């Protein structure tokens, strides 16, 4: 049987730790704390503003990592893509903050649906971006940066 | 592919910026609460966010599909083992000869200029100057292998490095160990490893010289296996080819003797690598008196290691 984890070399694990898990740490820790306090583990424990902030950091780190590629045209293409990601997630962060804040106003209930929709969209975009970032690392051999 | 992608990037930025500004301006206006409680705002927000996502996703996927996976090949060998001559002839042979199901084209002005300059020099009967210490040059090419629907694109990148760092494996250098050099990082990450050994040295009666070459290569392989984190119970997946250079100087009946002299390295590679093969390579073919280049270059076995590597990578 083919070992599907064969490509998970030490370098891949190091890269994922530094470029994926590290920026996502605040979001994951926040979700874990909320889950433990509320004793509920569903999508409501994910805060869209925390997730978009973490994803912005992730895009920045992947973009920096892409810039170290020897192939300059590929490096600039990948770095530009993930730079657009920084902008997209920064906007999602702003929107999430605004609508989360509005839910705490007296008429706030009207915004709950919007916050929920932003949460789902942020979750989908983030999952997609993380998968593409890992695929890019595997396909184009992005290097880990030194902390 | 570049222009549509740039337009898409610009579109993503514009849609995102306009959506955010639109909602923030509404937020600051008095009528916002009334408007926001309207279902339409939810729908507009979601549609624009979804459009942003689609645009962002398309550009990420377009970059993935437009760029083939790179096949990085590293070439390790002592100075004067003929690495640069091998790569120059290899690129010329692959680009100008017909191979069934394989098309090759050098890529990038740096590679094309270097190969052309070096080829001109060789054709004029001059040997190439040794690669300056600490210089790293990447030979790049685009290639396709297979036919029709099974055709696969490759971006080939071969690193050529002055071989002086291999000597430091014996402690001759001052803290300039091979595994600490920037090139070794490239070697560890490369998909194919070519070990180049000058077979003329292997014919020498100086056993000290022989053991220095063999020990250096053996140490490089041990470092590689260790750095790649290969489990002791498994073999390294990366194909390793041992290139015995300048094979035109060695008659067929002497070749088994040379392979025997390298038995420690060969056994180590067989034990630790899933794919290991020995290739006899002559980059320029027969040479004249006192190692002078003859007018005609007649390479032998130069393309075999690369075709073998590409076949394995499929």
Word description of this protein:
The complex is a heterodimer of chains A (147) and B (314). Chain A is mainly alpha-helical. Chain A contains four helices and no strands. Helix content of chain A is 74%, strand content 0%. In chain A, helix 1 packs antiparallel against helix 2 (48-66), helix 1 runs antiparallel to helix 4 (112-140) and helix 2 runs parallel beside helix 4. In chain A, 37% of the residues are buried. The mean pLDDT of chain A is 83. Chain B folds into two domains: 2-65; 68-313, P-loop containing nucleotide triphosphate hydrolases (Rossmann fold). Chain B is 49% helix and 16% strand. Chain B has a seven-stranded mixed β-sheet, sandwiched between helices. Chain B starts with a helix and ends with a helix. The chains are: A mainly alpha (147), B alpha/beta (314).
Treating each run of at least 4 consecutive H or I residues as one helix, how many helices of chain A? 4
- Percent helix range of chain A: over 70%
- CA radius of gyration of chain A is 17 Å
- How much of the polypeptide of chain B forms β-strand, as a percent range? 15-25%
Broad CATH class of the largest domain in chain B:
Alpha Beta
Low-confidence regions of chain A: none
Question: How confident is the prediction overall: mean pLDDT of chain B?
Answer: 80
Number of helices of chain B: 12
Strand and helix order of chain B: HHHEHEHEEHHEHHEHHEH
Helical content of chain B (DSSP H or I, runs of 4+): 40-55%
The CATH architecture of the largest domain in chain B comes to 3-Layer(aba) Sandwich
- What is the count of structural domains of chain A? 1
> From N to C, what is the helix and strand string of chain A?
HHHH
Give the CATH topology of the largest domain in chain B.
Rossmann fold
